[in-house]
Amino acid sequence: IAAEHNVSNGRFTASVTGTYILTASYDLTTSGYVGGCGIRFNKNAGIILGFNFIATTASMTTAAPCIAVIVSLNATDYVTCQAYQDSGSNKNISNSTSTRFSAHRLK
Fold first, then answer.
1. How many CB atoms lie within 10 A of CB 3?
2. Are 70 and 106 in contact (CB under 8 A)?
3. What is the pLDDT of residues 2-51, one digit of tens each?
4. What number of CA atoms fall less than 13 Å from residue 100's CA on the CB side?
5. What pLDDT is recorded for position 100?
6. Please, how many CA atoms are within 13 Å of residue 41, restricted to the half-sphere of its CB?
7. What average pLDDT does this structure show over 63-69?
8. What distance separates the 2 farthest-apart alpha carbons in the chain?
9. CA distance 64 to 53
10. Which residues contact 48 (CB under 8 A, 6 or more apart)?
């Protein structure tokens, strides 16, 4: 499955029709802003497969939204993962062990 993930365009493209489990998370440096951050999967640039949102508080320094979905994909369907934050300014996504993506074909 590693060959199905294209790091240049950020897509995971199924080469075999089947049922997949997709997981992703990221570690966001919040620096105490009040608002929120989230993560979602999109299928073929349109269908939202899942979304997770975390409300942040002034006492937080980091937030790590995560998501897991089980989805049916046809061969050539592709999935992208999008991160979201609403602080009104740029925030850094950390290279910590909390920032990851995985895909596994279940059947």
1. 7
2. yes
3. 568 787 888 999 999 999 999 988 888 777 676 788 888 999 988 888 88
4. 8
5. 84
6. 25
7. 85
8. 45
9. 10
10. 40, 41, 42
